[in-house]
Every structure is written in structure tokens, then in C-alpha cells.
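hey m, so remember when u said the C-alpha cells were messed up on ur end? i reran from scratch. heres the input so u can diff it against urs
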Amino acid sequence: MAMMRLRREDPRVVGAFRLHRRLGAGGMGVVYLGADKRGQRVALKVIRPELAEDQEFRSRFAREVSAARRIRGGCTARLVAADLEAERPWFATQYVPGPSLHDKVAENGVLPAAEVASIGAALADGLVAVHEAGVVHRDLKPSNILLSPKGPRIIDFGIAWATGASTLTHVGTAVGSPGFLAPEQVRGAAVTPATDVFAFGATLAYAATADSPFGQGSSEVMLYRVVHEEPDLGGVPDALAPLVSACLAKDPHERPSTVQLSERLAEIAAREARGIGAPRVPRADGIPKAAGPRPERPVGRRAEEYAQQRTERRTGPGSSPTGARSSAARQTGAGRGVRTPAPRPPAARTAVRTAGRTPVARPGGAKRRLLRQRLFVFVFVTLIAAVCIAALQGCHHF
């Protein structure tokens, strides 16, 4: 994380902490690197004066800090101290050394599937703790994830709801960042833990592709895409694509839970680390399971045409209607995944049994062929000899 020198207007001491460097600034306030008398380093955010004068903001800020105190777990920046009654309210969280996920991808490029899955599993664990504390992050994104030597850490949880300039604000909606907002946030509906799951999926897609799954553009364009268009997951590794797609479902009820995400991503990380690919296998919990590489699949209208072509190839021009129906049933998953072969007529079964067999030579066949060859050679040599003798006798008469 980049550090800057303190400016003339910056405070030198806040509460029990001495400030040393500037870490950044946003619509909510300025973040400083500070330390207490024991040397414990913190990231301390001081609220802007204009916000400090807003009583509604102070009330909302107090609720968010109270909820943040309840968060337990090692995947978040722990809240260390706060003063809600100060002239300029402030709060201090554990300082997390290391770059943000956004900066790492911007500097080094996309991350491999195993690393994306490993980071995702740890973040999902962190979100479990956040949601159990009754907090919804509301602004989960790559720049709010710090990659420390001990693992990824989520910062600005729950507090980002009150920010202004650093995030996008619309009347009647919660704040957030274009490309990582959930559709319900754009519409101004109530946020839930599923809202964070949507942002989580967009964050994983960014780590794997170095771009938002909804591309780039103005705020209005991005928000329209989030609500009305499907995400572009073309660059996401096959092992992660189905899980990311499930997180980005438009309907919050169709998204997986953070517990499911943690379990599945841990499995994917282990498999990818061992170099074991796997085709997609449906799971009972509704989350597609990655179990190896798969060929590229068509989508949309191409998928329908592809399925129809496969059905025609399976049934064939001479197949019976019963066989066609059985083939179609197998493709649509009838019978809860149990594949029951279509009955074949006796002639078809006979053809299947005999088709492709290699003829086996009977005993004695090779000997008979050898005898015929020898007999042909003997007759041919005898005729040649007779012709030669007759020619010699003719020469003696002359």
C-alpha cells in the first residue's frame, strides 16, 4: 500500500495513536498509518468535517461501527478502536501490510486458477463471519481486499455504505462501485448477504481476467449492464466459471451461500494445485462441480441448435420414435440422471453384435492356400520345361 507524507493540515495525534503517514483518502475521510505506545500499527480513518456535522451520518456511522465490533474471524481487518463522539469521528482497524487485489492484478496480470480459488475460499470464510455479525459489506471489490502475508483481508466492511465520492451514490440506493454492484443495489432494493455474493463473484472474475465481468464504460452504462445483461466470463478458467456464474445470478435467491462458496473453492484450489482438472458434475447443493477440463460449450441460441443436432445424430434417420424420445429424455435429464437405454429390435441387436468384428481365420486355411500356390508353381515350371525341350529338338532337325 502506497504511503505519503503527512500534510500540514493533517493531525499528528488522534486518540491514543500517533500518525506517521497518509495511506489514502476517499469520500468518507482520510486514512492514516498510526501506532499506539506499544507499537501496534493501525489504519486510522478520520471522517471529513462536512460529514461530521451531519447528525444523520453520525447515527448511521455509529450503527455501522457497533456492528463491525461484533465481527470475528481472521479474514477481516479487526476494528481496534473508535471515537464516535469526537469533533471528527474516527475509527482504527488493524493495519494490513500488502497490496490490494486490484493493485496486484494491475501490476502482475491475471492470477492462476489455483490462486484465485485459494484467495476466494479465504474471502468466503471472511464473509461468513461478516454476515454472522449482521453486517453486509455493500462495497466488496478488488481494492477493498488486501493480500497480506497471512492471507487476504477484507477492509471497509459495512462502513463503505456511508461513503460518497469514492463510491457511486444514487438517490434511493445504497452506494457501491460500478461493475461490482448487485442488481438489487442498482434498483434501490434492500441489501442482503446475497448482495455481497454478487460482488464476490465479480471480484473473482476480475482476479482471473483483470477486468470487470461487465466490461468498462460510464457509470450509467455499467449499471445498465449489471441489471439487464449477462456477464462476460470468457476469460475465467473452466474450473471457476460455473461457480462465478452462479454468484452473478440476477436473482439473489439463486446465488450460492458463502458457506457453499468456501467449501467449493477450497476443493477447486486443492485440485488445481495438484494439476487435476475435472469436467462439470452437478451437485445436490445446486452448485456446479468442476472435475476436469471440458470442451468449449456454445451458449444462447447456439446451445439450442447444438442440442438439437446432438439429438438428431443420436436417433439417426432410421431410428424409431421410441428411440428418439429416449434420446431426448436422456439429454433433458429425465429420470433424475439415470440413463435407461432405449429398447432395440432383434435385428438391431444382431447388427450391433456383429458390426465391427474382425473375421477369424479357420484352422487349416493357411495350409490349403500354400498347397494351391505350390501346385501353381509346379505346373508353370513344367510347362516352361516342356516348351524348352521342344525348342531344342526342333533345332536338331535342322
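this time it looks ok to me. The mean pLDDT is 77. if urs says something different then somethings off w ur setup not the seq
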